[in-house]
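2024-03-11 09:14:02 INFO queue: dequeued item Amino acid/polyamine/organocation transporter, APC superfamily, len=511
2024-03-11 09:14:02 INFO validating residues
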Amino acid sequence: MIFGRVKPLDAILATAEKKGLQRSLGAFQLTMLGIGAVIGTGIFVLTSEAAQKAGPGMMLSFIVAGFVCAVAALCYSELASMVPVAGSAYTYTYAVMGELLAWMVGWALILEYAVGASAVAVGWSGYVVGQFQNQLGITLPAALVNGPYAGGVINLPAVLVSLLVTWLLVVGTTESARFNAVLVCIKVAALTLFIALAVPVAQKEHFEPFMPTGFTGVMGAAASIFFAYVGFDAVSTAAEETKNPQRNVPIGLIGSLLFCTVFYLLVSVGAIGSPLGAQPVRDAAGTLLDPGTTELAARCKAIVAGGALEPLSCSREALAHVLRTIGWVKVGNLIGLAATLALPSVVLMMMFGQTRVFFTMARDGLLPEKLASVHPKYHTPHVVTIVTGIAATLAAAFLPVGKLADYSNSGTLFAFAMVGVSVLVLRRTDPGRRRPFRTPLVGIVAPLAIAGCVYLYVSLPWAAILVLPVWGAIGLLIYFGYSRKRSYVGRGIIDTLDDPHMQPEVARPLH
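2024-03-11 09:14:37 INFO prediction written
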């Protein structure tokens, strides 16, 4: 039976018990963890993308995306507390719904992590180019800092940061918790400064018309800026280390998402109310132009060449551009510097997450065991890291940030929807299982999470919608052509999870 291969939950839990994590995190620590994980790429990079899709209505888009994330997070937390091991939604699905769907989720997570890393790299590139131009007076050649979508040849800064992060992951240089905390402070301080300077001078007239692209545009923007909330699963996966998880996990999740949503709304108020406004760019005939297209890039160039301010939708460093426009040139440059410093760590963590999902799948026999090879000197999964790095680099070199974020979101939304389904299935098939955290009102919350993810998915651009089934079809060919007959669960080898967090640095080789 296709759906019959379920990895025994008891075996996974027995593995997790070996670690015996101490319950030390309270509601405040969880909330801070969530804020640090969520705030970053999306708000720095995708504000211009949201403006082009929804205009001032992007404020509603942030609320919609935050709500869908919240209900998905509550489902995520129940499974994370029951199955507190690595592998994210892939592991949860394997334990509940079987190998085939777990493979599809793991395959979709490649879109979330690897393509997401590419999106962050492209966003970082925009801020770096702005730093060279505004701080040093150096204008980098357009052909080398833009992909073909913007009339260039290759996005060289995005390529360089992707290759640098790949090298760091191979040699095992990962950021410490203290260094990450410093970067979180830089990000939050930069956005707080933006709010303090931009919101007080916002002008009401720039909010009209509020929804120039209608409800469809608002939901399309919500589907894109869903990327701005990804990272909340850091709270979910900390359920095993939380004191009183039934109380503190929802506080941490809802608290961090509510804080980030309010933060994002205030940032969008400052951006929309600035002299730039947030009205979408249209061609000479008044037709709305799609983000990440050569037509939009050409129209933006024509507007600037005519002596007008560069519209918000055209900017590759939106928040810094807003502050420079309202007279805070040096502070705008500092905002750009903050993004330049903070975003590479996001690239690193996304690539790190991707290599660990690949590594877990290889340890389950679903991918070639060579991918789970550990470097004899650096003790890192160097083969899978290099493969991931090359793929992420190629995508960053030639594709725009908005399209990459949309492709990433298609994989994320599928994985989150499957988590919602898994919660409902497990409540029915194994109601007596110990649940340190139980999703409240599961009969309402889980269907809302599933429906919300599906609705945002169909609100993505057509190209992003089609990426998932095409990518999934490739995955199915690999699964039935290679993985199914080599699966350890299928061959009756159960104990393949030697380390609860599947870290290659300490995991024993398979025999």
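2024-03-11 09:14:37 INFO annotate: Residues 112 and 408 are 4 Å apart (CA to CA).
2024-03-11 09:14:38 INFO item closed
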